[in-house]
Amino acid sequence: MPTTPERAHAVVSGASSGIGAAIAAHLLRLGWRVTGLDRAPAALDAGGFTPVLVDLADRSATRAAIGRLSGATALVHAAGFLRVGPLGALDPADGEAMWRLHVDAASVLADGLAPTMPAGGRIVLMGSRTAQGAAGRSQYAASKAALVGMARSWAAELAPRGITVNVVAPAATDTPMLRDPARGDVPPRLPPIGRFVQPEEIAALVAFLLSPDAAAITGQQITVCGGASL
Fold first, then answer.
1. Whole-model pTM?
2. Which positions ≥6 away from 168 have C-beta within 8 Å?
3. pLDDT tens for residues 6-30?
């Protein structure tokens, strides 16, 4: 991993809000250069940050956007959204849209950036504790569970090059997604610690996984749940 900030360049998807924005801000404070990919304008306005407007559900647009990037040493795929529905009322369009953004976009981003990553490169995919299964969230859970299989496959492929791939799987995190009306009658559950996970806590873990100290951690799903898994 590059040890000088000017050489550390992270591509962060979903950087306009929520966990993605927290990750971008955290890395900037550490001296990283950050390219933020999102279809919404980023609120960040800081030296070292380059926003790129792109619809990550559009494969061609995503390929074109990353084709213009160079020197990426890390990829963090944090873009995502949640749609819910019980059996008997599943919306195929919702399931397809979540798959395109969570899984297909991750594939396009990694396929375009990993081949030129240097030794010490890092890939982190934002999963979810829901990947283990949750009533009313089967389509979302399926897309997040798929990230684990991809990450472990990529980790095995990239380990000889010194590149790690991991999944960070938060439980209910205090982001706009938590308050999205599209959740319907599937409210978030408060973790045993008595509060929701904070985006900055996820950002700090991601920053560690991008650091040289995490070089021996690869192919793992790390759950941040505030005790919800107990």
1. 0.92
2. 124, 125, 126, 127, 202, 205, 206, 209, 221, 222, 224
3. 579 999 999 999 999 999 999 999 9
